[in-house]
Amino acid sequence: MKSVLCLALLLAAVPVAAPLAASTITAPDRTIVNDPAALRRLQRNSGITLQWISFESEARGHVRVGDANGVIHLTGAQRNGDASVEIDGDVLRIERDRFFFRGRIDIRNTPDPGRTCVREGEFEFRITQNRRYWRLQQMEQCDGLTDYVDIYF
């Protein structure tokens, strides 16, 4: 009996490996649209900016919005020379003042040459203070810098 109890205690103390994270980002079955007007604003967006490149409207990049079998897909970029921000992924859910995005955000060569900040996962973009854009809420993820990635409407 003592040996069974010791074995049970020993097994309970052995750490269990966490499941491996998926190596690819999977698409949702469909985008949940809780506010059709917000979806229309996103579809008619007027571009993307990263503050290190430019906030000016004439320097904005472009964001294409597609719909593949009910899944809203975003792809776009803002570039100035070697400096760039790129976005590619799917909208999981869209609400009046926010949307949730799963994909990749890639910032290169800005604010300093050679800087690379690649993010993959789920992100929130939100409208705050009656602004005319959605701002990425996960702003501080690389190098301790704050990256303002905005999609305008």
Chart the SSEs and their pairings.
Layout: H1 2-13, E1 32-33, H2 36-43, E2 47-50, E3 62-68, E4 71-80, E5 83-95, E6 98-108, E7 116-126, E8 133-136, E9 149-152
Parallel strand pairs: 1-5
Antiparallel strand pairs: 2-9, 3-4, 4-5, 5-6, 6-7, 7-8, 8-9
Descriptive account of the structure:
About 20% of the residues are buried. The chain has one domain (about 30-150). Strand 7 and strand 8 form a beta hairpin. With about 150 residues, the chain is mainly beta. Strands 1, 2, 3, 4, 5, 6, 7, 8 and 9 form a 9-stranded mixed sheet that branches. The radius of gyration is 21 Å and the shape is globular. The chain is built from 2 helices and 9 strands. The longest helix is centred in the first third of the chain and has 12 residues, at about 1-15.
The global form is globular
Alpha-carbon distance between the two ends: 70 Å
Poorly predicted segments? 1-24
Percent of residues in helical segments? 10-25%
The oligomeric state is single chain
Radius of gyration: 21 Å
The secondary-structure class comes to: mainly beta
